[in-house]
Amino acid sequence: MSSASSGFKLGEWIFTTDHKRIGVLYLIGSIAAFAVAGLMALLIRIEQSSPGPTIVSDAYTGGDQYNVWLYFHGAAMILGFLIPGLTGFAANYLLPLMIGAKDVAFPRINALSVWLFWAGIVVALLTFIVPDKPDVMWTGYPPYSITTAGNTALYVFTVHLMGFSSILAAVNFLVTIIYMRAPGMGWNQLNMFVWSCLTALIIQLIFVPVLAAAVTLLLFDRYLGTHFFDPANGGDVLLYQNLFWFYSHPAVYVIFLPAMGIFYEIFATMAKNPIFNYKAAVYGGMCFIVLISGEVWIHHLYYSGMPDWLRIGQMITTLMISVPVGLMTISLFGTLYKGAITFNVPMYYGTAALYLLLIGGLTGIPLAMTVMAVHLGETSFVHAHFHFIMGIFSTFAVFAAVDFWFPKIAGKMLNEKQGKLGFWFNFIGVNITFWPLFIIGVEGMPRRYWDYSQFPVHFGSYHKIATIGAFIVAIGMVLTISNWLISAIKGEKAPSNPWGSNSLEWTHTATPPGPGNFPTPVTVDANWTPYNYK
Amino acid sequence: MKRAVSAMVLMGLGSAAALAEAGAKGGIPDPAASWNHLWHDVLLDLFIIGIVFLTAGLYWVWKYRASRPNQIGTAPKFDKITLIGLAVVPSFIFMADDFYLAAKGWTVWNEYRDVPRNAMEVKVTGSMWSWNFEYDNGASSSFVVDSKEGDGLVVPVGKPVVLRMTSTDVVHSFFLPDYRVKEDLMPGRVTYLWFNPVKAGETIATCAEYCGNRHSFMWTKVKMVPQAEFDAWVAKKKQGA
Amino acid sequence: MSNSTTGHNHAQAHHWETSAAPLLVVLGVLFAVVFCFVEWITYNNKMLAIICAGIGTPLLLAGIAKWTAEALTQKPVMEGLTPIALPIFIVSEVFIFMGLFVSYWTMRLSAGPNWPPAGTPTDMNLVLPIIMTVILVASSFTYHIAEIKSEQNNMGGFRLWLFLSIILGAIFLGCTAYEYNHLIHINFVPSTNAYSTAFYSITGFHASHVVVGLGSFLTVLIAALAGKTNKSLTFCVGLYWHFVDVVWFFVVSQVYYW
Ligand code: HEA
Ligand code: HEA
Ligand code: CUA
Ligand SMILES: [Cu+2]
After folding, report:
1. Which end of chain A has less neighbouring CB within 10 Å, N or C?
2. Do A354 and B101 touch (CB under 8 A)?
């Protein structure tokens, strides 16, 4: 990008083992995935703007085209954008800096992770050039995924590559956090973001392997003729769904926890306050989520014919998640109390996050109630739920993180005006896009339908509004992303600690940090915390 | 923070009030009606929680704007006991609300799963891409997705209907939006759902589990007709088949 | 994005660390495993598959060689962390095997009395797995002795016992190959029935771990022949091997004898 500048050496970047550069490589990859998946979202929205075929060729082939867009959108947004954006980019760039380490424990493994992730993106992008495009959705349920003519192998390998990358990253970062903290830094002095990653990575370490196993079995069934999911030969259709959600529910907390962590950092810094009830949020919130996240997956199978005792039992555990999340929420909101809040672009996103967290989180509650989900499940109500909490709240966390740490990463200030303009487009756009989906969801608009002519005509109007919203978001996204690119080259030089933060990455490193991170080794004393504003 | 705590207590009271309001009804239960009722309770509950948090959050964001550069926050330092209280009390309030929701949900769920004894049984088979309905009186009906031919599911008004469902190929789902119910169809397993057609009329059921190219088109007519009309239809079907 | 000014940063004396090994490994895997498999199995294009393997394998080997060389010569960021990281990694391996075993149990338990399903040979060889167990356990012991020799700085002994372990591991793989060959010969293949499905997946997945273990033994041996050892590498390779050994107990008890 800035190869014009004298310091740029391509080899130093692609062979790099430095965590900061690897973080940036993650960022580039995940934003690329986001852009392509976002363009798919636009195609989806255009198609849904009218009940019958809109841009697909005709009613018969339309399904094939649309299903590929939707497959790519879902898979790339989750596996290619959010997980690597948070536990790849943000964790890589920030964790070693926040704990005062020179680098991660295994820099070469770290480089291996990022390139595995990139390989995953390459395989995912093959979707668009192979003749038999995968169309199994990001969930890949058999028997469809093993009988379709689409190329399920590409789906499986995308998951394998990204999954292996996450497992290695999890091992690497767990060791780093546990053993490489600056001398004197106790567990209760860690940044909230470090805690959020620690807990998210534990989840990743334990659950990703199960997903890997599940998709491997898909591959065997599809191409080697085994019968894991084939009831005619002793297999079990629901087995895959159970394995998949055993991973994929915890995976939402791999996204949610670091996203919360980022907003904690932003709130504490911009309000110049300590985290409210730190220990409750860490131990009662994050750690409790790790414990409980593996016992709730049935809430994705409420209408799949699981035994009733499981459907009811896991309704209760699922509802109980509101307790740790509630504690984290109180702590997040409470951090603002009696603060001295400065508003910049990250804080704009932070303020919006207050609302997004509530809308997205609270709409999970009716879905968590077995009997409510029997109607609401698999409708666009679910879409609206997870777009609010994941597609907007957590996505905004990535954008806020880039904006917040931009001066550190690039050594330049962002253009505030353009950032704020982008924010308003994004924020207004997402509301216009996803509120209509709540409404028609409750009325019964099913998911993954591109043609909904059989439903009442007003569904069409709601879909049209949603489409308009998506284009407003698109403008916002282009403004936001181009702001980074332009500011990285032309921005004003950043002061070393523009937000007056007390966290190590701002107070003890050069801007941007050089190799080895800290000019002199860091030690902290017992009174130090990243949030000690005195 | 005190304000927030008292607001949360209020929220708990609100839930209790809503609980008291739930009534019992006689005769054959109507799960769809119970669903609608519960939905309103849940919305109210969530609305209260949402408003409490959102007002607190937005009010603080607005109230505590920095008035001069380099100002720092003045958050009070709470002692240990207060902090524990501020974690434990809300936790119990949240838990109470969870149990309230779980209990109400479970009640309605039991209605959904207890099939009335006099229910009429229909075997439903889903496949790529058509629906097949077999009645225990020997009649059968179908709905073909591409040609939109067939009567679909026809049921008599006033008699509960239980569907025993399976699939011949991939996973489908029988979703009856008007009756607030859905359940998946799978090869190798039989699942069930039941509903209570209280009024004559016509509605649709639609496939809610992704099943490939024609997924969007995989719906079927559902007709609720008076008993006499239903008997005539069955008779005609038996002749025709 | 961040590079424009970092180049001018002279605050730290270090330079940017680089290594080509990770990228080589990933490219190798991408071609030799992913592309090769996709071409072979989904497009049935054997020619392209072989070309992909031909491109990938040297890249992969070069990457691994480079990596080992660097691992043996360069100082890690912090000493002593590898022996901690490996157990953590093994936790996630355990969960992969759990996924497989859970799948197997599900099929097994839902079959009820219809187990073993039709098509399973009635005379499954139940002696061979015992022999294989003995061999694998023996290899764990020989490796343990190798480790002791290495601690005593007895390079000759180390090489010898390491070599023995490799031989035992190879015999184990040979047994697997023999068994597969026999079973396939009598038409017991992965697609035969639910049992064959689980049998080949679980034993195959385990065997792939044996292959990885043997591969890492080889890298240690090659280094040892060149006179180099690395304590934590030796320890980790051993730990992994013991893990593979322990998993085998479950494979034998669940898949063969249950
Ligand atoms: C970041 C991602 C993320 C997060 C954090 C969540 C969080 C939650 N989700 Fe969501 N969910 C998804 C992503 C996410 N989800 C996705 C992607 C899907 C669809 C997958 C697919 O099928 O493709 C999905 C689907 C999904 C379903 C299945 C729907 C269906 O298909 O039928 C359910 C059902 O229970 C559910 C529930 C919940 C609950 C209870 C939470 C809770 O964690 C929310 C907790 C938060 C709050 C409750 C708000 C804050 C708390 C308070 C203010 C305290 C007080 C509150 C109370 C006492 C209630 N989600
Ligand atoms: C992180 C997760 C994430 C995010 C951010 C989004 C973002 C969006 N999603 Fe997403 N969506 C999912 C995750 C996400 N989605 C998942 C998991 C599914 C389920 C899939 C399934 O069913 O299997 C889904 C399904 C889904 C559907 C359901 C379709 C159906 O079931 O039939 C719809 C429909 O409206 C939709 C719309 C959108 C829109 C309009 C956005 C918008 O917010 C997108 C805005 C972004 C852009 C418009 C891109 C802008 C960028 C550029 C234009 C490039 C600029 C480049 C430079 C300047 C260099 N999504
Ligand atoms: Cu059948 Cu979707
Ligand atoms: Cu979930």
Report:
1. C
2. no
